[in-house]
Amino acid sequence: MYTSISPLQKMTFETTMAFMKDAILNNSEDILRTPSSGLVVGRLPRIGTGCFDILYPLY
């Protein structure tokens, strides 16, 4: 996990405080491209059942 670019993806595993401290001290940024980092901020991943929307006419 240390090789991942995404600080939020690193924080989704067990050592949250260590990764958060490193991200803050190193001024890291996250572009939210991984499903793990997106879930941390409430964005649903566009994979599986999240990759489409069902539209039904209401008339």
UniProtKB/TrEMBL annotation:
<keyword id="KW-0804">Transcription</keyword>
<keyword id="KW-0240">DNA-directed RNA polymerase</keyword>
<keyword id="KW-0808">Transferase</keyword>
<keyword id="KW-0548">Nucleotidyltransferase</keyword>
<protein>
    <recommendedName>
        <fullName>DNA-directed RNA polymerase</fullName>
        <ecNumber>2.7.7.6</ecNumber>
    </recommendedName>
</protein>
<dbReference type="GO" id="GO:0003899">
    <property type="term" value="F:DNA-directed RNA polymerase activity"/>
</dbReference>
<dbReference type="InterPro" id="IPR045867">
    <property type="entry name" value="DNA-dir_RpoC_beta_prime"/>
</dbReference>
<dbReference type="GO" id="GO:0005736">
    <property type="term" value="C:RNA polymerase I complex"/>
</dbReference>
<dbReference type="GO" id="GO:0006351">
    <property type="term" value="P:DNA-templated transcription"/>
</dbReference>
<comment type="similarity">
    <text>Belongs to the RNA polymerase beta' chain family.</text>
</comment>
